[in-house]
Amino acid sequence: MLALTGSGEYLPPMEEVDRGLIRRLPAPARVVCLPTAAGTEGPERIGYWSQLGIDHFTRLGAQVEALPVIDRASANDPGLATVILKANFVYLSGGKPTYLYNTLSGSRAWEAILAVLEQGGLLAGCSAGAMIMGEKFYGFPGLKTGFNFLSGATVVPHFDEISQAFLQPIRLAAGNKLTLVGIEGNTALLQSKSEAGVRYEVLGSGGVTIWNGRGRKRYTHGLMPGWV
Questions:
Q1: Residue 180: which domain range?
Q2: Total count of domains within the chain
Q3: Residue-wise DSSP of 79-118
């Protein structure tokens, strides 16, 4: 499963969403929080995100730890990758999307995250952590390659917070070939797979906007159709 959040990671308004995600796991939650996207912001901010994640999931009754996967060297640390492999819920908090993608891509940590997914676990990404999961993400300027969990899409978090002036160049860069997936704060888009195929569900208090050459539509809590 893949959960993409617009903003609000580890804060009280997201507790019910994350409780719902934990309930979907086939076993008790073993959460690993990765502050990787904040890796250039210094020890204080890395520590802030790490502790915030620990406190949040502890309140939810989950087993949790934060790992210092903050640069390319730590992303390739076999010991840290082994810890990730033992998790069934990996959470990527916000920060710089390009740095996050470049740090994880092709690393031992990323291989471990993919293994968690293959074993029926959950990957959650908020803000920058959500952006890199599309086929492309806006990297100021222009589009950059993402991990392509949402083929043909570019993910825009904070969708209810950003101005139209800020949004317009992203929409123009996406053109007619990419679908813009706008995720509002305190809201998650959940992608799950079954024998029936891939399904998408909106969780939380806000909405998800699907915007492409066929139009623009906002979905709120509940199942939604795919767009590809």
A1: 2-224
A2: 1
A3: HHHHHHHT-SEEEE--S-HHHHHHHHTTSHHHHHHHHHHH
